[in-house]
Write a structure and sequence with these properties.
The protein is of the alpha+beta class. The protein has helices spanning 2-12, 14-34, 42-45, 59-65, 90-98; strands at 47-48, 51-52, 67-75, 80-87, 105-108, 111-121, 133-139, 150-155, 158-164. It has a 7-stranded antiparallel sheet with strand order 3-4-7-6-5-8-9.
Length: 166
């Protein structure tokens, strides 16, 4: 009788503890997905011997497109390149994102003869929020870009050069 009572007391905390952990995980997920909390990725933490990696910025490109290009990374085992951008002006960014015939073109710095193949634009038609990050995927089938390279980003608004590739 005493052993059964002890087992019951030991298990009393199990359900409330599990529910508390699940609630915290749900709240954390909602905060991350809604953009209330932002966790910096590899680009935010990337540092060289001379200090943090500085990504090129172009005020004219940002003003025209309504976005700031923030990250170029080789992903998917080297077969994809992800170009991320942060929304500055939702109206202009919506126009930029909806222009599927003129997406930005990526090149390895100094090699404009071989663009990285554009693969997939992020889903169209949703409301863009200022400060939120979105992406464009490119096929890197010929291995044009590799981690450690620098890239050029050509858009209808202008060019960003020497963009670090992670």
């Amino acid at each position: 009788m005493r052993a059964t009572l002890a087992k019951g007391i030991e298990r009393v905390w199990l359900l409330p503890a599990t529910l508390a952990v699940l609630c915290l995980a749900l709240i954390g997920t909602v905060l991350l997905r809604t953009g209330v909390v932002h966790v910096g990725g590899a680009a935010a933490a990337a540092v060289t011997a001379s200090g943090p990696i500085k990504t090129p910025e172009n005020v004219d490109v940002e003003a025209e497109l309504g976005v700031r290009f923030s990250h170029v990374a080789v992903v998917g085992g080297g077969g994809l390149v992800e170009l991320t951008y942060t929304v500055l002006d939702p109206e202009k960014a919506t126009t930029f994102q909806s222009d599927t015939t003129h997406p930005p073109t990526l090149y390895k710095s100094g090699d404009r003869a071989n663009p990285v193949d554009q693969s997939a634009l992020m889903k169209q038609g949703h409301n863009l929020r200022p400060g939120q990050t979105y992406f464009i995927l490119y096929e890197n089938t010929h291995g044009i870009l590799k981690t450690g390279d620098t890239a050029e980003i050509h858009s209808k608004a202008g060019t960003l050069t020497d963009f670090p590739v992670e």
